[in-house]
Specification:
heterodimer, A: alpha/beta, Alkaline Phosphatase, subunit A, 2 domains, two-stranded antiparallel ribbon, 13 helices, 14 strands, 12% strand, B: mainly alpha, two-stranded antiparallel sheet
Chain lengths: 470, 558
């Protein structure tokens, strides 16, 4: 199996130039006024090969660590070979990451998702009842809103994007996405680096000054201000349960007007545009990573969700094969080897992205130090299980995360009465608690639950997941 | 081990339908929404119920049709519309799918900007004045009094008219007529009055607990229901005159509009969403076994089924039964070859009959059969689940935990086992069979079709076996010989009629049906049954119900 990472990636990891196709980044963040906190959620598909992801270390001091108990392990002293094959590409980041082993997507277990991929995509960041949103439109509240958006609504800056949602699949898609608005509505993900660059950095005037077209463009902000009053009137006239739709539209329009008004005030060097031509996987990923970093550097948003996207069989050296159809859910040795390799390749991409953030100075540390990065996905493994979920969190060295550790949670949390999973009545802690912890790490300490109404109180989803938030 | 698989009947069906799956080991899970089915089921339908009518944005299809009606082809062609989104369960006109996100608002802004630039360069295309001789201000007044009301599908309220005139006056003094015209159009096209189907009420007319929509709201409800387009002049005239409060008047408009070619678009759109035909866009097949399959053939398959559904619903009495039994289709030369029927050659679509001994209705057409298949073979699981979900409105439960997919036949591998044998062997474990026996047998009846929908009598050297025992209760259960018999059995069944009522209602009402809709769906079903279960009967039933022109008063629960 041939890695998608060629020489160019090795140069990158060595801190050398990426060459002419790379985006020149602006590294001008000198300080971090006000303790800025950012969130970057990175998702990959098909879960992991747990036996090749988990770490039990095996040293003398670890012999007493039992699967049935909570425990943790210091990642700092480990040698590269002591990391599991799938996590090994993250070795250089071990001081700035925390691995969470044993968390359960209990909301999915209890919600009977039917389609585990689609169910997992819904549950991963909402922890909510997937089925309530078609039947009770009154549920347009926090329930159903994914935690990235919930955090974004709180930390977004005036005149900036509330949040960005990016993918390495297609131009703009609502398939395979994780982020949801109030009530569970899907948020489109953007996947074309050139188009994303144009949206973020390319909307400055391109018309001949004074021309008719320039005058029409130049008045866009005042038109939006004018139209906003139509929305305020329509909101007043709408019935209560519909108002949130118009309020949301008004908010986004207002942000757009602010961005148009302030488009010349971006205090950073805007990066060069990626090419319009087709890019291979690694080139596209690199371009997207650079855009993510640039969006943070320029403070265009405080929250980004990024789906690393699919691999073709060809990209993984299995020419003519389909990763999903031929390997992802199979258990034969060739499939296990391929999915392990797939996990390693994903880890390399995550490492590249996180290292990019860590290479940008900010205040007394790096951009990464003020960014909470969460690597998650829709499944635990290729057998469509939803526990134990493979989580790796990065960053936040300043005040968010307690890093450099591997934390194992025992499967000792009872499922609601009458529910079993693999014949067992207990699983790991519900991931709802992890979602609460993410809110806390981002300063939203008033959040005490995510997805609470899911089970009518039959499952305790309140409070944070202990062990990793400072 | 206690199994936790739920067979989920969507919305109203879960509450009111006696149909059930006969699947040992599949039990109900936790309550989903806190509702009390027992209480709801015991209620009666003595009085019509008012249900939630969600505010929603124009869908992409509606937006495109509305822009063409408003602007004409010169201005409305080749526009970049916002990304098309769909609800969790597939309908893209669902109000939840049409909730805006940040990028959608930007795309709507870009759309308005794009049009306004065209308008500024050719203001005469929207202005009704004589630009050579009339004063500029008269042109702007005309725009506000003619173009903008047409964009908003109603006359402007005086205060709104004053705002637009004042904005136009301010712009005119600084920017001149062309730019001002463009900017006013830009504003109108971003207004909620254009982008949303706002609900205006005419005041309390004495009916307890409800308020009646005004004539223009009713006109839009009718036109977007039948045409996915704004009201025409006849509807607007009746809206202004107040005639649309009469059910007979609304029914007359439905019958008039149903006969108009514009009714075909929604019928095709329904086919696309009901059957999930968009899945064909990403279907891939083994090149060696199916060298003829490519994106163009997939597009033709989709086009054929959309045409079939539209023609069946509109031109042939609109019988739901015919959707599953008719063999009359249009085919291209490529499709005709796939079906083994004659074609005169060339690029024309030709009408013809599929072999009645091989096929019956949409479930035996190449589009649906290709969707329900992998690269090499048809999938009894995908086909069986799709019949449950889309044709009978039964949501299969979850996949049991810890289950890997059974290996599919690799491309180019020699066939040593029939497709059915492979599927039967892989679900032989009791924990698999408990649920698979509910949908796999349905899928086995389609074993006479390969992965691109070609008819076959053998799978390799072995004759195909399409006989199956269906684990469904009532009139749908028991042994069935093949897909034709299955299609005919379903077509004449009550669960299918009820499901079609639900699917068309979801399509038309922009939301999934819930327990509150039980009486209305029951009302529709009875009316449609009396009229032969037709699309027209459903539309007539919908617009003639008193609740079509009413909504609950805010203080009464909304």
């Amino acid at each position: 199996m041939k890695s998608i990472f060629g020489r160019r990636h090795l140069l990158k990891l060595a801190g050398l130039s990426l060459g002419a196709s790379a985006l020149p980044l602006a590294h001008r963040l000198a300080a971090n006024p006000g303790g800025v906190r950012r969130l970057l959620v990175v998702t990959t598909r098909h879960g992991t090969v747990y036996d090749n992801w988990k770490m039990r270390h095996g040293g003398p001091a670890d012999r007493d660590k039992k699967e049935s108990e909570d425990w943790e392990h210091d990642l700092g002293p480990l040698e590269p070979e002591q990391l599991s094959p799938i996590l090994r590409p993250l070795y250089s980041l071990r001081h700035k990451m925390v691995v969470l082993d044993g968390v359960s997507m209990t909301s999915s277990i209890c919600n009977s998702p039917g389609d585990n991929h689609g169910g997992g995509e819904f549950h991963a960041l909402t922890g909510a009842n997937r089925f309530i949103y078609g039947e009770d439109p009154a549920a347009f509240d926090w329930e159903g809103m994914s935690v990235d958006v919930r955090i974004a609504e709180r930390v977004a800056q005036a005149g900036r994007y509330r949040s960005l949602h990016l993918t390495d699949t297609g131009d703009v898609t609502i398939d395979g996405i994780y982020s949801r608005e109030r009530g569970g509505a899907r948020i489109p993900y953007e996947g074309n680096p050139a188009a994303i660059h144009q949206r973020l950095f390319g909307k400055l005037e391109t018309e001949v000054p004074g021309s008719l077209r320039a005058r029409v463009r130049g008045r866009r902000g005042s038109v939006l201000d004018f139209v906003e009053k139509d929305y305020l009137r329509a909101t007043d006239e709408a019935i209560a349960r519909d108002r949130v739709k118009l309020e949301q539209h008004t908010d986004f329009m207002s942000r757009l007007a602010d961005r148009i008004a302030g488009s010349h005030d971006v205090v950073c060097d805007t990066p060069g545009a990626p090419g319009n031509g087709s890019l291979d996987k690694i080139a596209r990923q690199t371009a997207l990573h650079q855009l993510i970093a640039a969006a943070f550097v320029c403070d265009l948003t405080r929250v980004i969700t990024f789906d690393i996207g699919a691999f073709t069989g060809d990209q993984l050296g299995a020419v003519g094969k389909d990763l999903h159809e031929d390997f992802a859910h199979k258990t034969h040795p060739e499939a296990v080897a391929m999915m392990t390799f797939y996990g390693e390749e994903n880890a390399k991409l995550v490492a590249q992205l996180v290292e990019t953030l860590d290479s940008i100075p900010e205040g007394d540390g790096s951009l990464l130090d003020h960014t909470l990065v969460v690597w998650t996905g829709e499944l635990a493994n290729g057998q469509h299980d939803v526990t134990p979920l493979p989580y790796v969190l990065f960053g936040g060295a300043s005040d968010m995360l307690s890093t450099g550790r591997y934390v194992h949670y025992a499967p000792s949390h009872p499922l609601p009465s009458g529910v079993t999973y693999h014949g067992k009545k207990n699983v790991g802690p519900p991931h709802n608690k992890l979602l609460v912890s993410l809110c806390h790490a981002m300063g939203m300490t008033d959040v005490s639950w995510v997805g609470q109404s899911l089970l009518g109180g039959k499952l305790d989803v309140t409070g944070p997941l202990p062990g990793f938030v400072v | 081990m206690k199994r936790r698989v739920v067979y989920r009947l969507p919305g109203v069906l879960r509450l009111g339908l006696a149909l059930s799956l006969v699947a040992a080991g599949c039990s109900a899970g936790l309550p989903e929404d806190g509702s009390d089915p027992a209480t709801t089921e015991s209620s009666t339908c003595s009085a019509p119920e008012l249900t939630y009518k969600p505010l929603r944005r124009l869908s992409n299809t509606e937006l495109d049709n509305t822009l063409h009606a408003l602007l004409g082809s010169d201005l409305a062609s080749d526009l970049v519309l916002p990304v098309r989104t769909t609800a969790e369960d597939g309908f893209d006109a669902d109000h939840r799918a049409l909730q805006v996100g940040e990028i959608v608002v930007e795309q709507l802004h870009d759309l308005a900007l794009q049009i306004s630039l065209r308008v500024a360069e050719s203001p005469g295309l929207v202005l009704g004045c004589d630009m050579q001789h009339d004063k500029d201000w008269l042109c702007i007044e005309g725009l506000v009094d003619d173009f903008i009301p047409r964009a908003f599908r109603r006359p402007l309220a005086p205060i709104q008219r004053d705002r637009y005139l004042a904005f136009g006056k301010a712009l005119l003094s600084e920017e001149g007529l062309a730019v001002t015209t463009g900017l006013l159009v830009q504003a109108a096209l971003q207004s909620p009055d254009f982008l949303y189907r706002l609900q205006h009420v005419s005041g309390d007319d004495g009916a307890a607990g409800s308020e009646r929509f005004d004539g223009y709201t009713i006109a839009s409800r009718i036109s977007y229901l039948v045409w996915q387009a704004p009201p025409d002049d006849l509807l607007m005239a009746d809206a202004a005159g107040g005639a649309l409060v009469e059910p007979e008047v609304r029914a007359a408009h439905i019958e008039r509009m149903f006969a108009d070619p514009r009714a075909a678009g929604p019928a095709r759109d329904f086919a696309r969403q009901w059957l999930g035909l968009g899945r064909l866009d990403v279907a891939t097949k083994d090149d060696e076994r199916f060298p003829e399959f490519n994106a163009e053939l997939a597009r033709m398959m989709r086009e054929q089924t959309e045409r079939f559904v539209a023609r069946t619903l509109l031109d042939e009495g609109g019988s739901f039964e015919a959707l599953l039994t008719s063999t009359q289709v249009h085919s291209t030369e490529e499709l005709a070859e796939l079906y083994g029927i004659p074609h005169a050659g060339g690029a024309e679509w030709e009408s013809g009959s599929l072999p009645v001994s091989e096929r019956a209705g949409v479930l035996t057409q190449a589009a649906w059969l290709s969707i329900g298949a992998h690269r090499q073979d048809g999938s009894p699981v995908l086909r069986g689940v799709d019949v449950l979900r889309r044709i009978l409105c039964i949501e299969p439960g979850s996949r049991p935990e810890g289950i890997a997919d059974v290996p599919r036949r690799p491309d180019g591998d020699e066939i040593t086992q029939t497709n059915r044998e492979r599927f039967e062997s892989r679900v032989a474990l009791p924990k698999c069979l408990a649920c698979h026996q509910s949908f796999d047998p349905i899928g086995y009846t389609f074993e006479s079709f390969d992965a691109i929908g070609r008819y076959r009598t053998h799978d390799g050297p072995v004759p195909v076996n399409t006989e199956a025992s269906l684990h469904l209760s009532g009139e749908l259960g028991g042994v069935v010989g093949d897909a034709i018999e299955l299609s005919h059995r379903i077509a004449s069944s009550r669960p299918y009629a009820l499901c079609m009522s639900e699917q068309l209602n979801r399509f038309a009402q922009a939301r999934k049906q819930g327990s509150a809709d039980r009486c209305r769906v029951e009302h529709d079903r009875e009316r449609m049954a009396a009229a032969g279960n037709t699309y027209l009967a459903l539309l007539l039933g919908a617009v003639q119900r008193p609740d079509f022109i009413r909504r609950l008063r805010e203080e009464d629960g909304q």
